[in-house]
Amino acid sequence: MSQNLSTSGGWRVALRLARREALRRKGQTALMLVLICLPVLAVSAAAIVWRTADVSSVEGIDRRMGSAEALIETSYADKIVQTPDPESGGYGIPGEKVNEDEVLDIDDLAAVRDVVGRDRPVTVFGRDSLGFRTDKGIGDFEAFTTDLANPVTDGLFEPVSGEYPPGPGEVVVNQALADRGPGVGDSLTAVRKRMDGTEQEFRLRIVGVAESAGSRGYPIAAALPGAFGKGEDTTGRWLVGGGPVTWDDVQALNEVGLLVTSRAVLNDPPTLDLDPTAVPSQDGIDDITMTVLALVVAMVLIEVVLLAGPAFAVRAKAQAHTLALVAAAGGTPRQARRTVLASGVVIGSVGGVLGVALGVLIGVLAVPIAQRFDQSRFGPFEVPWLLLLVVAAFGLVSALLAAVVPAFSASRHDVVAVLGGRRGEGSPSVRTPILGLVLLGGGVVSAVLGSAGGRDTAPLLIAGSAIVSVFGMILVVPMVVGLISRLAARWPLALRFAARDAARHRTRTVPAVAAVGATVAGVVALGIAVSSQEAANKDAYQPQLPIGYASIALGLDADRDAVEETLTRFLPGQGVQAVRGLQTSTEAGELEIEFTADGEAVMLDYWSSIGSPYLVGTEVPDFIEMDASERERADELLADGGLVLLRGADDDGPDAPEVQVDVRRYDPAGDEPKDLASATSKAGVVHVQRPTAPAPALMSPKVARSLGLEVDTVGLVLPGPVSESQEKDVQEAFGALAVQPYFYVERGYQADDAVQIIQFVLAALGAILMLGGTLTATFLALSDARPDLATMAAVGARPRERRRVAAGYALFVGGIGALLGAPVGFIPGLAISQPLTRHHETGVSSLDVPWLLIIAVVIGLPLLTAAAVGACARGRLPLTARVE
Amino acid sequence: MSVKHALLALLETEPMYGYQLRAEFEQRTGETWPLNVGQVYTTLTRLERDGFAAAEAENAEGHVVYRITEAGRDEVAAWFTTPVARTQPPRDELAIKLALAVTVPGVDIGTVIQQQRSATMAALQDYTRLKRRAVGADPRELAWSLVLDSLVFAAEAEIRWLDHCEARLRRAALEAGRQNSRLDDETSSSHREFHRPAGETPSTSGTEGTSR
Amino acid sequence: MNPILELTDVTRVHGEGANQVHALRGISFTAHAGELVAVMGPSGSGKSTLLTIAGGLDQPTAGTVSVEGTHLGGLDLQGRARMRRTSIGYVFQGFNLIPALTAAENVALPRELDGISARAARKEARTALDEVGIGELADRFPDDMSGGQQQRVAIARAIIGERRLILADEPTGALDTETGEEILQLLRARCDAGAAGVLVTHEARHAAWADRVVFLRDGVVVDETGADRVDVLTEHAAR
């Protein structure tokens, strides 16, 4: 008991000391608070935005069913089982067979009423994807058909302007649709295309603008049921009002094959006693995601601790004199430790609470901004208090951890040296760097294992390697700092001073260097991973045409004149070239052609974007790229009435001087294919310049004739260039045609914008963190070095010498951090690129090291930071700040 | 100061006659404590009477040479090992002067103190200058320099004592000023006391024109 | 002969209004080549202010300061910093060595800051260290030296580069009496060799090493003692 009492008493004293110290050194305290606060704030705000954006079942009720009690949908089964919320669980069909004849459809409202009661208000709530006419052609929109005058639909739409609800012959549209075509007062021409190619048009008068409660950005229109005709999809959807629809009602409706989303059930979901095999289970977070999440949290924690570390080290050092006096007066090392740890408790709890409070504030401000970038509507403002509590605890823990090392080193201070006014620290321990090197070795081993491992083990091993390597690096930092500072003898004065001073104050320097190192390691690792993946994507890309070319595959019934007219309208002056080939899709069925050489079928790529895989002509078209000698040979074969088989550049199949060509036809009924014709022809295998050929075979008209097949214009090719807006115009114009031709523009490999953005974000994040780590260390060092700077001033240092020293600190901390971090980043970076980019068939993996990014981060950033620090540092030396 | 013991201590090194003794003494102590030859001979007679020294025959120049006796050696040993008694405060003219200056009206005590301090400082500078010349490993030089040190420290002590007096008087004046007139500028009234009256030049200041 | 340091009617007022403190009130003060001048006075008498103003670390509110004929008031921060590198040497009570630099580097500091090559500066520093008798400690760090050794380093730093004005602020304050004497001997020797020295101290014993002692009270010179300048010079010449 007494032990406990004295313990709590000890803490009370320590906490009081820490509180006083925090109030006394306001600038330093503010810095520490910022370092702890910022991550807490950022995560809190993000959590609020995320939770608000995330719409739960209950929150989403109104946008799903307006004011109705339930949304009832037909299924294609005569009996189903469902989860309380079909949207997050779905439904299953018990029994084996679906009886299509007895399935309810859109007109079976009576069957619904039979179950839920005849006196309930019910209205149809149809959804359909349709087209609408624009100046250029046809755009897509989502059509809602329901009686918006019915109170059960209240809440589905939010009237913005004009009239609401729409009456017969009227329609309301959302802003996104109005922006792309007709506005209020104009008429909306909706186009319904049927599978059989026929079109139906509906003209409705736009009377108002209303936004859907659930989504924005995608064009939407709403009108009375039947306004857009009847589609082929006969799924019935009804909104039902008039009192709660119970789980029993839901199950009764399930019995007749109806799927129900009930407000009452969502608000108070029943405990499920369903057969788990009948209902697809809801996917939770899997183990790997969990592990990765834990690793991310760990890395963030490390980074925060490292960034805040120097401030705590300096605080502890400022208290060193007090602690030494306490020790001289009989205090135990534990009490000394506790005094420093108490700083962590005070800063951590204040920082955590402050961070959460500010985070909530920022969240309130950020939600409307985030909504602007998101198409789906956010739910009501929501603050996940439990999560925020965890985040605040994270702040406290990081502050405590940041205080641990200074606390232990403070408790071990040489009392005599401290009271004697010596400012340095003892020599570094030998064991730490050895342990660090061992850990780095472990990281490498784990990375090597991970790079060879499969998709399931690799992430764990490599992420583990990353953490272990970073820890190893942190332990090596003191040694490296010491070694490098020993090289300083010939350096310029400011840098030499900074290096030696940094080495003398390791508890302050090491975490800052480690923070920079960890940042750089992260940037390098992720940079390698992202670049390698990008390289793999690029390697895997197979262009269909020479870069810049565009092709149009004409279908069987395509209106070629209309297509060409569209092309001349939007792409005037382009030499449109007709592609002649065998029409493989015929009314009678699909044709398949097989080439056999030496009794074996020749394996060829089959796909084509130019209308037919089998082109016919007397020479090789120019959009098929091949070496001059190959082209010559191919042209010769074609002129000679032969056949050319095309292979990719790397495909080294055998040549085939003579092939047998067999034509078969698959009829639509799905019967056995029917042999149509056979012929033998002189042939040759020709390689194109790209990995894949745009078509597998070229045949001379003679071969086509001998097979008795019709040669037609199967597609069009034009050399381009086609701009993206031209492409969009052409697509929209083609959308208006009865049969839409396939339009393709070869732009080569398009580097994913996301990759460049990620690299940029990585570099920016790295810069911010590096700047943060360097800045804290530098300014703490400068305030520590005040007496030295005063001395320099007294012996005649120019005022700018302080800037130089500041830049020296920044360069030393940033430079060593970057030099250490880069190789450490290579370990997991190289490792992760292997499983990440391994081709699922060939097993070949790609590696691309983003040298530019790495050089920028390792060399550019430290220099830039040093320059920035040098420019920002006050260029005034303290003149008479001497201890008298 | 015991001249008796000092002479005995010198005799311990070698037998000497009176004049020689005086020269030796002054060489070791500087001209700090001037001895007249009469005093030396009186003391020698007394030493002989007490059995600490014995007169020997006259030497070639006709000087009576004295040598130390066994009893004399014991006496010297006892003198060296007994600390100098500090039972009685020395009759210090300066202390008496200041005590009177504080109580007698019309005396600017600040000036009194400063004049004394300058004088002592000048002496201190002289001692230091002498000391700077007394360099060397010769035990006699060392002895001389130790005596100088003693003088230096004594002078320093006097200056410190003067500083202390001044600080106390100053505080007293401040308090008096505060009690007497709160309307008066306190600092200036306290300063006034230490400003040297116009036209009055301290005797020790010979550097008029190089400063001020 | 022109004085190396000359302060004319120097006044220094700290603060404003009710908080005004007159640190110096119209002080005139000189130090000539070959002369060591001690400034004595109780704390708050303005002796440290006098020294910071003489060293260009502080600016007088009124009056002029000139060092080797250059008016410090006419110089900007840079110019005054240059004077401290080339003409004025400072010695502090707390030694004020930079712990991150070796003895030689500390001594070489003013020269290096002046832009001469590190190698040349280090060579000069070794000479200066030899001069103060601790040439063998050139590569030690201050933390590994005794107080006396550190102060010797500080003096070496103050004399490097032929600087002819040495300002010493209680240089013996943190030392025992004997080490203190040694330091004063060094200063004295420096002045005997032709430099002008100003020694601020509150210890009479140390002030006695000076040719002149100036007493400061509340920012004014109240008295001055010591040999006439002429005496000093003749004595100097006679030696």
Description:
- The complex is a heterotrimer of chains A (884), B (212) and C (239).
- By secondary structure, chain A is α+β, with helices and mostly antiparallel strands.
- Chain A has 3 domains: 63-267, no CATH class; 434-541 and 752-884, no CATH class; 550-745, no CATH class.
- Chain B has helices spanning 3-13, 18-29, 37-50, 70-81, 93-103, 109-133, 139-180, 186-192, and strands at residues 16-17, 53-58, 64-68.
- The model of chain B is unreliable at 183-212 (pLDDT under 50).
- Helices cover 63% and strands 6% of the residues of chain B.
- The relative contact order of chain B is 0.09.
- Chain B has a 3-stranded antiparallel sheet.
- Chain B is mainly α.
- In chain B, a hairpin with a 5-residue loop joins strand 2 (53-58) and strand 3 (64-68).
- Chain B has 2 domains: 3-81, Winged helix-like DNA-binding domain superfamily/Winged helix DNA-binding domain (Arc Repressor Mutant, subunit A, Orthogonal Bundle); 93-192.
- Chain C has a domain at 5-87 and 164-238: P-loop containing nucleotide triphosphate hydrolases (Rossmann fold), CATH 3.40.50.
- Chain C is globular, with a radius of gyration of 17 Å.
- A 6-stranded mixed sheet of chain C has the order 6-7-8-3-9-10. Chain C has a 4-stranded antiparallel sheet with strand order 2-1-4-5, with helices on one face.
- Chain C is α/β, with parallel strands linked by helices and 239 residues long.
- In chain C, helix 3 runs parallel beside helix 5 (147-159) and helix 4 (118-131) packs across helix 5.
- Helices cover 36% and strands 26% of the residues of chain C.
- Chain C has 8 helices and 10 strands.
- In chain C, 61% of the residues are buried.
- Classes of the chains: A alpha+beta (884), B mainly alpha (212), C alpha/beta (239).
- The interface between B and C is medium-sized, with 35 and 31 residues.
